[in-house]
Amino acid sequence: MYNKNNTLFIYCIFYFAFLYIPVLLLPIFSFNDSFHMVFPLKGFTFDWYIQMWNKSRLHQALFNSIKVGIIASVVSTFIALFAAKAFTRYKVKFHGLSYGAILLPFIIPEIIIAVALIVIWTSMGLKLGLIPVTISHILFCTPFCMLILISRMEGFDKSLEEASMDLGENSFWTFWRVTFPLLLPGIIASLLLAFVISFDEFILAFFLSSSDQTLPIYMWSQLRFPKKFPHILALGAIIIIVTSLIVMTAYWLRNLGQGKKKDFSIGI
Amino acid sequence: MSSTIQNIYFRSDQAKAYTLLSPALILVIFAMAAPMIVMIFTSFNTQISMIEIDRTFTTGRYEDFFSKPIFSMLLFRSVKISFFVTLLTLLTTYPLAYYIAFYVKKNKMLWIVLMTLPFWTSYLLRVFSWRVILGNKGVINSALMGTGMIDEPLGFLLYNQAAVIITLSHAWAAFAILPLYVSLDKIDKSLLEASYDLGNTKFETFWRVTFPLSLPGVIGAILIIFIPTVGDYVTPQLVGGTDGRMLSNMIQSLFGRANNFPLGAASAVLMLTTVCLIAALVTYITKKVSMRMS
Predict the structure, then answer these.
(1) Domain count, chain A
(2) CB B124 to CB A206 under 8 A?
(3) B110-B166-B129 Cα angle (round to 5)
(4) Which domain range does residue B271 map to?
(5) Which of B36, B174, B192 has the CB atom closest to A266's CB atom?
(6) Beta bridge partners of B47
(7) What's the predicted TM-score (pTM) here?
(8) Which of A67, A140, A171, A180: CA 20 to 30 A from B81?
(9) Rg (CA), chain B
(10) Would A25 be classed as within a structural domain?
(11) Cα→Cα distances A58→A37, A80, A197, A232, Å
């Protein structure tokens, strides 16, 4: 019914530019031979990328972030997998209440969760560090993973599971041989996206990490010094490219084997 | 007899469901609910030294909050900024979602992926990038000065509330595009045809059919943008300056240099209360509006 709308199309192009210019500026300046991010560009250099390799604190922060990200994504995907199965395969009593409670950490301002966790953690006399950061990331990633897995579970035919049960498989083997393979693309997508979320998360780590910096905290600590700044741009450029690749893989996986029913949501 | 069997079956189904749900619920209870209760208790305490907190009950921190005008001002400003962020984001992304839902025929998926991809790339760097764009030596100013349109850098671009609003609305765009697109795409196209057949113009069709049917997406977007942005810390810190400071920046300093955990906890409690009240209000109004519409 609607064929063409040039005004809207031009608007979309402008909005597209608005979305991408801030993201693309950083990689452009990461090759610029100057401490200041000012046009016109001075000259081409790889210096900032080379400088990056000699920063031991950066390596430590990267290692911390990867460690936290892997634990958080694996644990939250596991928790979310069980929850998603409960919500899609059973008529849960107090459905709205439990569903809402599990989604809540994703919606309420992160700073409130950060404050609550720092208060309870210190009042128990425990030391801040990567452990509370990991716990908070699991809390924050689980709703996301659950939404991804629920939409995947709703996407496939329940009768496949029923057929397996009718053929005499118990529920464990049915899950392992039927449900799990069908869910696998969704599970991997959930792992990847949860990792990206945790890897990028700032405010919870800022409150809870103490001296064990994660990568965003390390970047934050360098932003104030113009001389140290260019290598953050180089790091940022790499992060942007790697996360984009991970996210595109996750998107592709989520629609794998879904046929015509495409899934667009990032979990909303 | 059969009803008892059914009852047992139903109960065991519930048991299975809640066994599956238990890890998630335990997580929420221990990592969110319990800490929040402790946070509320702490907000009624007093910080007496660097590490010591007097646990006797007092409403002093709330009195502090309301007696120093800066706190209420920052809370009000946080809400105001979030309101404008939500409004700006909705207004700018609605046409986009509309275009993808109704005009894009091929590769809708590609459009959606491209529109949401920036959301996944480092939040910190995106916000920082805005500082580079808007700063005195930034992209806009250096470009304008380079072309000779201005002699002095435009100082009003950065370190104010407008900069915070633009940056946040850029950062949260994906959260508006998706729910809006989903609700617009669901609309049965034959309803629009019916509206045209009944003699409505394109504009009337939009206001009377398309827009009301997209309301669930609009409400989703409002809640999912408004609530988290009230507590945003990074953006006001990097591009807000003094004018754009929000309550989160104050809370952070209470847990950092100012070292007053109870007052920080009280501020967080009041932020949470405000956010809940506003969310409830939005939901209530929508229910009323949608009831009147149907």
Answers:
(1) 1
(2) no
(3) 75
(4) 70-293
(5) B174
(6) B53
(7) 0.90
(8) A140
(9) 25
(10) no
(11) 22, 32, 19, 10
